[in-house]
Amino acid sequence: MGRVALVGAGPGDPGLLTVRGRELLAGADVVVLDRLGTAQLLPYIRSGARLVDAGKAPGRQALTQAETNRTLVELAREGLNVVRLKGGDPFVFGRGGEEAMALREAGIPYEVVPGITSSIAAPAYAGIPVTHRAVATSFTVVTGHEDPTKDGDQTDWGILAKVPGTLVVLMGMGRLRGIADALIAGGRPADQPAAAVQWGTTPRQRQVVATLETLPDAVADAGLGNPAVVVIGDVAGLAGQVGWLGDRPLSGRRVVVTRARAQASGLSADLARLGAEVVELPVIRIAPIAGSPEIDAMTAGIRDYRMLVLTSVNGVEQLFARLRERGGDARSIDPDALVVAIGPATAEALEAHGVVPGLVPERFVAEGILEALAGRDLAGMPVLVARAREARAELVDGLRAMGARVDEVALYETLAEAPSAEDLDRARDADYLTFTASSTVRRFVDLLGDGGAASAGRGRVVSIGPITSATARELDLEVHVEAAEHTVPGLLEALLADAAGA
Fold first, then answer.
1. Residues known to be catalytic
2. What is the spatial distance between Cα 492 and Cα 187, in angstroms, rounded to a whole number?
3. Can you give the residue range of the structural domain that contains 11?
4. Same domain, 310 and 374
5. Predicted pLDDT of residue 269
6. Which pairing describes strands 139-143 and 50-53: parallel, antiparallel, or unpaired?
7. Sequential DSSP letters for 395-410
8. Which residue of 39, 109, 110, 203 is surrounded by the most CB atoms within 10 Å?
9. CATH code of residue 124
10. Is it the case that residue 449 has pLDDT exceeding 90?
């Protein structure tokens, strides 16, 4: 018998997922997903886990509630560890109670992991405390999903109008005018402050503050829609005094990350923390080369190399994956061999595997490695260059010109990815396009189709270094910003400097 965990995904900001929730995602065999609040948590799900869409949207329902209940029971009976990942908190308008009852009835062991509900998180990110000692000492959370004009609702808006404190309405944007009229008719002041917060806690967050009477028109004028949280009460008037989200350096800017999905999360997370709306557009993916005579010869004879040159984090990971296949590890490498890392990220990856590089060049490009080795006697030295297929020839040619006996071994290749048309359209409307390798530039321009670079949109191009910049210019992309330090942190620093001067 497997187990089921009903896990609250939180309101949208992945940093608000609980520690327990992240632990369960990392160990789940199957994750049954909601539509909202879960997309940013996909990197926390272990590779190979099965994903089941149980999301609901206007006009579309992947699974009915009965089907979801049945799916959870059937998966657990297969002996699987199941996470039911639910937006917000499982028990706050999330039907988690129904799912728990179905599991209990079927004899399935389960646990419940609360999540931060949008009813408090979205207002907090908008600078609205739902309680304040001098303004409101209580708050009431209610669904706006029911039509306030029909008979027989569980929600009595006339009574709610008389309840003191803050009123938080979830799922009420489609009926906002009726809700406002019903509350005013019930005695709520028409001029009481009110606010709507769309996509709360995410970089896409937008909000309007008005009065109860004027909020429906203000929301329509601003183009706000679902998903949103409505806050009614004097605390909504504090947004201008308490607001903090818009103070971050990249607030209001859309930034495209074109790295392979497995590598994008770190840069994306840094950008999001700085306030950017991040569009992950993985135009390539990293594919290990399953096997080749060169790889077999390399792993069998790796101790014979007097120098090993690694030019990327991917190269490091693939090298040690090949060594593990033969029962090897860092001890397989001659301790007296010179290990060269092209830059600090590659050096950190090597150190994580127990190898301290003996050389990291000042310039994090192939030419920088050659410059750092100038003057050394490499005549006849067996050298391994482990890297991607179809990498630039300058490094290997330069080492051979210095007399080294170089084995160039391709451990992985970059393959084209096909992002969604929606994400590509969002990329064309971005403020910044970031490129961390020539391969990402080439694939991005390929995706633009017949329009080529001319249809790339208005975004300013940020390049990690001169090689990537040269490729962009060859393909008619204007490079607006180039990182002084050719690393991902260097790219981020350059982007921030450009945004500050804009």
1. 34, 56, 171
2. 52
3. 3-116
4. yes
5. 84
6. unpaired
7. HHHHHHHTT-EEEEEE
8. 203
9. 3.30.950.10
10. no
